[in-house]
Amino acid sequence: MKQVVQNYKSGELAVLDVPVPGCKPGGVLVRSAYSLISTGTELMKVSEAGMSMLGKARSRPDQVAKVMQSVATNGVPATYRKVMGKLDSYTPLGYSLCGVVEQVGPGIDDVKVGDLVACAGNEHALHAELNWVPKNLYAPVPEGLAPRHAAFGTVGSIAMQGVRRGEPQLGDVALVIGLGLIGQLVVQLLTASGARVVGVDPDPARCELAEGLGAAACGDPASAAVAAAVAELTDGHGVDQVYLAAGGGSNEPVELAAKLCRDRGRVVDIGKCRLDLPWNAYYEKELDVRFSRSYGPGRYDPEYELEGRDYPIGYVRWTERRNLACFLDLLARGRVDVEPLVSHIADFDDAVETYQRLKEGELKAVAVLFRYPGQAGDAEAPAAAPAVAVPEVKRRGAGAAPLARPAGTPVRLAFVGAGNYATSMLLPHLAERDAVALSTVVTTTALSAANAKRKFGFAEATTDLDAVLGDKSIDAVFVVTRHSSHAELTRKALLAGKAVFVEKPLALTEDDLTGVLATVEESGNDRLQVGFNRRFAPLLQEAKKRFGARTGPASLRYLVNAGRLQHGSWYLQQGTEGSRFAGEGGHFIDTASWLLDADPVSVYAVAPAGNEDLQVVLHYPDGSTATISYVTIGAPSFPKETLDLVADGKVLRLDDFVRASVHGPKKWVSSRLPKARDKGQNAELAAFIKAVRTGGPMPVPLESLVATTAATLAVRTGLAGGAPVTLARAR
């Protein structure tokens, strides 16, 4: 891969071919889409590298002090070799980018391959085609936010942390000294916080830009207009906070801050400017001088940044990663606008030339972006269509033939999980069956296991999963836990040689899905069923039979009036449990595929801004399409699920599993069911128990379960990319 580097000794800039970083546990490998040049921090580093050795020493007295200490400890020759070796090495540039997750390391469950993320860190968000980024230094990009805007995430977090250190309140008046990239963002964040802002910068163009982005007034630091604006806005008292976002060696920003700040006001240093505080001026006003450390709490803490140990939100509300996510949210909602700050977008291959133009002053810019191959506007390398892999089902040999149960011997079942769905939709059907023995229930809390044992007649209740998996008398395991644990528990049960019934979804990531199939191949055990029950509903089975075979492509519409979730529902924990559609959407995709007798080949998903409603369009090999409208804003009184299938001059209609009809040469209308809706759970369980008892095939082919799961995963990829997603089958 290619990466921008600099030799600090010679000042040489280059785009080098370097090895691709490995995807270590606790992080993700990200392919860059856009990375941002910090026209302040990075250009300062580039300029320093071009200085003489004496100039370097003058610009970094802190490093000179370290060298002198090393001389005293190790001697001149050893110190010289150490310093020259460090100077004469390539160092990376960059610390703010947006890209697509290419690989997910162990321990990561909040993003998957294909997700768009913003990344931070001068060791992990470099100007490079690929970066490994630990968990606390990336944040998912909200839907609809352009990648080039999300690339501002890190500098936005720096500005945000500076504003937080100033503690602005509604109605405050703030002074921002320095209207470069950070200063422009500080102006917008303060304005969004309800403060009125005065800006200071010697560049008239930057002053004009800041006023266009919300500043009340801006001007040159030497002009009387700035002092007049402050006096007018504060009734002569002075500003509540001063934000130092200027660089350079002048002490004027610090002196101006004291002059225009009110009594006991706050001065926040965000940039790297000279800080020779005029004692009398700061003492007489008792000014509170604060420093803002980069992106926020967690910065420079290796346990936070590298090991992923988060700070409890009750103790540290705004961490490095939470600042990043907050800034992205403000961008997505239009509260901050970075498009006017983009002065130039350069192709990544032109990085060296771009830095030279910036250094020499030929290119005057507030913000410059590198665009990587495959992004919009790159004529040589058009972006590849997004794809989600449909992994191949491989079985080791023919696999061990499952044994049929002896006549009269019940099928012994274990349940892992005993939540609402298990106790209301599955166990009542199983408890009534003579051919079933409820052997053991496993839960994480002892009381819930005891309740399930008492209510449904389990022989044993435990919290020890390993003991259950090691019990050879148990024929099948039901996995009915939270979504994030489904894939791992399924793998364990398959390896233990059990038949497995896992509630949807089978997996939340492509890696999880691949892992399940790797377990199938390793163990030779493919006895797996996912709880896609609607294809077993008697009413829908009869309607499909009445509709009959078709010869041409079909059009299917499935409206799911899902409604809103109650506050506190664990379905809202999208970071760990996936979105609502990730958890429930497999039902509707499976039903559509069953009705169309095929697996989808592509998925296109769109969502209106600001809500969870989805429109998902599935394409099938014969040209058929299925549109799933998953909505949360409908009337609660309207039926939850309605479906129409149209083909060959016929229409199949399903009304919420209460009434069905087929219109064609002959019309058929079902009678209204006398009992509650039957969505197929009882028939599905009967088919599964029969397969376990007789050793026959599972009710749904594993290939179909995999295709449905992959299509469900593709919805999220499609939402992030805004384009159809190909379901790429392994060859």
UniProtKB/TrEMBL annotation:
Keywords: Metal-binding, Oxidoreductase, Zinc. Residues 50-367 form the Enoyl reductase (ER) domain. Signal peptide: none annotated. Its cofactor is Zn(2+). The keyword Metal-binding applies. InterPro entries: ADH-like_C, ER, Gfo/Idh/MocA-like_OxRdtase_N, GroES-like_sf, NAD(P)-bd_dom_sf. It comes from the Bacteria. Belongs to the zinc-containing alcohol dehydrogenase family. This is Bi-domain-containing oxidoreductase. It comes from Streptomyces flavofungini.
